[in-house]
């Protein structure tokens, strides 16, 4: 049953991003990973189970989502994984005190266009603090009118498209959903435009 809080549902984007992490699992041990907008935290849980040092986060105002993060950790024998309230676009003490990060994860965070700039503001802040980090994100194509290209340019970010077939996520059972509508999933890696070595 789809919960009224869409952050408490495992969307196809989370499954696709989890598949990307699984395919790259040998590179994850010791990596410092932050999942934003984590909800039920499937990608973060997979990263943690593969040996990454993971921090899960969702909006500090979405207490049910933060509880879902904690529950997912307990159900997956990951009681040590911290859960933080981080609200996109808001500089908070929690955001300022984050330890260094290698990878930021976000599945289907580009859901509502009104949040796009807040998300990229937060990503830019994190990448400025961690210039060699990358933002691995999956999103569902919901409208041809929705684009983050101008915002990427504004925030001096670049993106690389990652074809789903390159990590076995183009299979119908992975990127599909029983919900009505179109379910085209895309993946990209976002980094600082002037960053070297990423």
TrEMBL record:
Question: A single Gene Ontology molecular function, please?
Answer: methyltransferase activity
What Pfam families does the record point to? Methyltransf_16 (PF10294)
Keyword hit for Flavoprotein: no
Query: Which InterPro entries does the record match to this protein?
Result: Methyltransf_16, SAM-dependent_MTases_sf
A GO biological process held by the record: methylation
Q: Does the keyword Methyltransferase apply?
A: yes
Record's keyword terms, sorted: Methyltransferase, S-adenosyl-L-methionine, Transferase
One Gene Ontology cellular component: nucleus
* Origin: domain of life: Eukaryota
Coiled-coil annotated spans: none
Task: Tell me its family.
Answer: Belongs to the methyltransferase superfamily. METTL23 family.
User: What's the protein here called?
Assistant: MET23 protein
| Organism of provenance | Vidua chalybeata
**Top-level taxonomy:** Eukaryota, Metazoa, Chordata, Craniata, Vertebrata
């Amino acid at each position: 049953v789809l919960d009224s809080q869409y952050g408490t549902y495992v969307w196809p984007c989370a499954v696709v991003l989890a598949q990307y992490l699984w395919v790259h699992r040998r590179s994850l041990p010791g990596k410092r990973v932050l999942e934003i907008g984590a909800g039920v935290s499937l990608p973060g849980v997979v990263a943690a189970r593969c040996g990454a040092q993971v921090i899960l986060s969702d909006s500090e105002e979405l207490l049910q989502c933060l509880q879902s993060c904690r529950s997912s950790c307990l159900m997956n024998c990951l009681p040590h994984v911290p859960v933080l309230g981080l609200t996109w676009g808001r500089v908070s003490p929690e955001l300022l005190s984050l330890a260094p990060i290698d990878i930021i994860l976000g599945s289907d965070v580009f859901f509502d266009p009104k949040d796009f700039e807040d998300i990229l503001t937060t990503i830019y802040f994190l990448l400025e603090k961690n210039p060699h980090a990358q933002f691995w994100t999956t999103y569902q194509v919901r409208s041809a009118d929705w684009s983050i290209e101008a915002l990427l340019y504004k925030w001096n970010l670049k993106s690389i498209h990652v074809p789903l077939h390159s990590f076995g996520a183009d299979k119908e059972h992975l990127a599909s959903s029983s919900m009505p509508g179109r379910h085209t999933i895309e993946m990209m890696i976002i980094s600082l435009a002037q960053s070297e070595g990423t």
